[in-house]
Amino acid sequence: MKALVFKNNEISLNEVPIPEIKEDEALIKILKAGICNTDIEILKGYMNFEGILGHEFVGIVVEAKNKKWIGKRVVGEINIGCGKCEYCLTGRKNHCPSRKVVGILNKDGAFAEYITLPISNLYIVPDKISDEKAVFTEPLAAALRITEQIEIRKNDKVLIIGDGKIGLLISQVMKLMNCETYCMGKHKRKLKILENKNIKTLLKGKNIDHRFDIVIEAAGKRGGIKQALKYVKPEGKVILKSTYHGRVVLDISSIVVNEINVTGSRCGPFNKALELLERNLVEVESLIDGEYSLCEWEKAFEQALKSEKLKILFRIN
Ligand SMILES: [Zn+2]
Ligand SMILES: [Zn+2]
After folding, report:
1. E-assigned strands of 89-143?
2. pLDDT at residue number 123
3. Residue 39 CA: which ligand is closest?
4. Right CATH for 2-136+284-315 from 3.40.50.720, 3.90.180.10, 3.40.50.970, 3.40.50.150
5. Domain 2-136+284-315 shares a fold with domain 140-264
6. pLDDT of residue 10 exceeding 90
7. Does residue 60 contact residue 116 with C-beta atoms inside 8 Å?
8. Considering the entire predicted model, what is its pTM?
């Protein structure tokens, strides 16, 4: 099969064997896959990952010991736990210390014609959800994770920093939680997508005199957390959503003095994401800025690297 492999700091489109399934796994033929900021960070050295890239996908099960899965259109959770540790045994495989993560840690990803995944990671995609929309299940689940982690009160004033893909998804989720939602970004075109959904937007660089109960850092850049601490109210909450290669130097005294609750936030609930997509409550189609075949990967990444672009998809099978 064709696969987009990252090795020795280089991407190449290789011909590799179709992976074989283990007892509890399914072989999935990938239909579409999305390029995420995490993929871009991996190219810069994040996680020191080598292997097939990609973790956002929709596909069709073509092989599984349990025949009822064959032919099903699925999306897949990206964390694969050991199944034995205290985290795995309490339904928190995302934090299994020996986990594998699709396209990020010790597990080949979805920019390939096929992928294997444990059946327990799979979710059937309702017919109403198109392939293009289904690719957003993973990032939308990540946006929804915030709602599992902190108390969100109706009418809380919330600021999302960053108008990238994840920022636009989080903004919509917070609006659905009935928060007074603001998204700060620097791209008028992206902010317009939110304005169409009655979400307030702030152009970066303009003076902002309000402070917020909750600030969600989704800028994907190192400066984001400093801004988050600047805009949060005393006793407010800061959620960190970006992962990036490299470190941030921070004066943490302001967190102590202002008694800020800082929460890291990663992967979230696929079932809730699929429900929102099925009920058409989140706009994702206008976030797609291009679709390419695997052979066109150079063009696809070139586009994905541009800050004005949103989601770039691979059309694989
Ligand atoms: Zn991602
Ligand atoms: Zn485990």
Report:
1. 100-101, 114-118, 122-124
2. 98
3. 1
4. 3.90.180.10
5. no
6. yes
7. no
8. 0.96
Cα-to-centroid distance, 283 and ligand 2 (Å): 35
Reported as a single tens digit per residue, the pLDDT across 158-181 is 999 999 999 999 999 999 999 999
CA of 70 to the centre of ligand 1 (A): 26
275 Cβ contact partners less than 8 Å away, ≥ 6 residues apart: none
Assign 207 a pLDDT band (cuts: 50, 70, 90): confident
Ligand nearest to the CA of 34: 1
For residue 89, report the distance from its CA to the centre of ligand 2, in Å: 7
Looking at the CA of 164, which ligand is closest? 1
Indicate which ligand has the atom closest to the C-alpha of 88: 2
pLDDT of 244 above 80: no
pLDDT tens digit sequence for 266-297: 999 999 999 999 999 999 999 999 999 999 99
CA of 209 to the centre of ligand 1 (A): 32
Distance CA 286, CA 77 (A): 24
Rounded to the nearest angstrom, the distance between the alpha carbon of 234 and the centre of ligand 1 is 31
34 alpha carbon – ligand 1 mean position (Å): 8
Longest Cα–Cα distance of the chain, Å, equals: 59
- 85 alpha carbon, closest ligand: 2
Indicate the residue type of 191: L
Map out the domains of the chain as residue ranges.
2-136+284-315, 140-264
Topology of domain 140-264 in CATH is Rossmann fold (3.40.50)
CA of 314 to the centre of ligand 2 (A): 31
Q: Is the dihedral of CA 109, 133, 277, 149 positive or negative?
A: positive
User: From ligand 2's centre to the CA of 77, what distance in Å?
Assistant: 15
Residue 302 CA to residue 309 CA, distance in Å, equals 10
